[in-house]
Amino acid sequence: EPEVTQTPSHQVTQMGQEVILRCVPISNHLYFYWYRQILGQKVEFLVSFYNNEISEKSEIFDDQFSVERPDGSNFTLKIRSTKLEDSAMYFCASSLGQGEQFFGPGTRLTVL
Amino acid sequence: QKEVEQNSGPLSVPEGAIASLNCTYSDRGSQSFFWYRQYSGKSPELIMFIYSNGDKEDGRFTAQLNKASQYVSLLIRDSQPSDSATYLCAVILTGTASKLTFGTGTRLQVTL
């Protein structure tokens, strides 16, 4: 069964450093998403991406964040200058249409 | 008022019983509703989606939607210890194309 994959599973970084989180969505899916979940809190939407451009973004997704689909398979989330409060689980998701979304296993980001 | 509300639980049910999980939402125009299961430390796993009023059954799971009351529920029949997890209700709100807005989740404990 096809699934969303994410790398790395755990990323530790120093405050102020740039990180890139990587995702491989399900191959025939057209919509791609990033969500995050701070420990003990609810899952929060960051951004959605369709047809090579951002279709929606939340207020969390400020100028420090960017997304890219550098090739036909990868989807990345870059955080330019990490803050302590960026520490969270980051989930990539994909969907065929604007409906059911399937989540990857997540990347745990720890900012020290 | 929170956009998507769930009782945080824990909801404790004996093995073999029916577990009933509830979710209310504030946006009357919402059309798409999803239930995800999240085991501790893992990513959300899609288990049901419902778009029309009424019941939708899939194996031991039944989703119920009442748009007039702005209420969606998930019933789990013949509950098993492996069903012990946090159940997340997610809604695509009016004015958003595919952004999932999550509730805080209800923790279900199935006891032997």
Report what the structure shows.
The complex is a heterodimer of chains A (112) and B (112). Helix content of chain A is 0%, strand content 50%. By secondary structure, chain A is mostly beta strands. In chain A, the strands form 2 sheets. In chain A, strands 2, 4, 5, 6, 9, 10 and 11 form a 7-stranded mixed β-sheet that branches. In chain A, strands 1-3-8-7 form a 4-stranded antiparallel β-sheet, with no helix packed on it. The mean pLDDT of chain A is 96. Chain B is an all-beta fold. Chain B is globular and about 45 Å long. In chain B, strands 2, 4, 5, 9, 10 and 11 form a 6-stranded mixed β-sheet that branches. A 5-stranded antiparallel β-sheet of chain B has the order 1-3-8-7-6, with no helix packed on it. Chain B is built from no helices and 11 strands. The A-B interface holds A 31, 33, 35, 41-45, 48, 55-56, 58, 89, 91, 95, 98-106 and B 32, 34, 36, 42-46, 49, 88, 90, 92, 96-105.
Secondary-structure topology with pairs:
The complex is a heterodimer of chains A (112) and B (112).
Chain A lengths: L4 E3 L2 E4 L5 E6 L6 E7 L6 E7 L2 E5 L7 E4 L6 E5 L8 E8 L6 E2 L3 E5 L1
Parallel strand pairs in A: 2-11
Antiparallel strand pairs in A: 1-3, 3-8, 4-5, 4-9, 5-6, 7-8, 9-10, 9-11
Chain B lengths: L3 E2 L5 E4 L4 E7 L6 E7 L6 E6 L3 E5 L2 E6 L4 E6 L8 E8 L7 E3 L3 E6 L1
Parallel strand pairs in B: 2-11
Antiparallel strand pairs in B: 1-3, 3-8, 4-5, 4-9, 6-7, 7-8, 9-10, 9-11
